[in-house]
Amino acid sequence: MTDDVADSGRGLWRGAALDRRRLRRWLDTGDWVLAAFAVLFLVGYATPILRPQLDHPLKHVCSTIQFVAWLVFALDYMARVYAAADRRSYFTRHLLDLVIVALPLLRPLRLMRLVVLFRILNRKAAASMQGRVASYVTISAATLVFCAGLAVLDAERHANGSNITSFGNAMWWAVTTVTTVGYGDHYPVTVQGRFIAVGLMIGGVALIGVVTASFAAWFIDRVRDTEVEAQAATQHDLEEMARRIEVLTREIVALRKESARDDVQLS
Length: 267
Fold this sequence. Notes:
9 helices; mainly alpha
């Protein structure tokens, strides 16, 4: 009886482990589903900001889209924790994922959900050729500027003394901030807007670092390729020289033998 219980327990454990492996495989291939929901969330978030005169039913639809996207992110996080071999280690190493799920319940932090999209782009770029890093940087920079412009417009549009009251002003401010130029003709006056500015500046510095690192890696690869080609050419020349020396050596040996035979015949 005890053996049957033990066998049953081992069977359940193996079944749970197999289910977690299957779930991990599905999660690894489902990144673009999360990316699609992140884009849907962005649409639901941006529409009421870009069109403040939107009818109430449509605003409700946009809010529903944002909630559904958050629910998908929350389910994905819980599934990843469940599928992890060491759940405690996964929890401590992926606190940002928890922040993405938990904090955006507050209105000023809703755009934290779009970190999912950056995380997916980063993972895909890291697993691909370096030549695709430029595409990742371009998409990330455009998304960062667009989202920051939306967020600061949402925070600043109706604030007292605000100078960012249109989407054009918001995008101009976002571009000058992310590039660390900062002309100062438009600037946030609210606490929320200033927090957005800090995040945008940090993101801009990070993107500049990625671009610099990408060019440095490309340059190093080119130098390494040139060195490899030079070493291959040198090795080929050495092998050709060795072959010719071997041929000359055989010819000299043959001439010596022939000369020795002639000397014997003359004597």
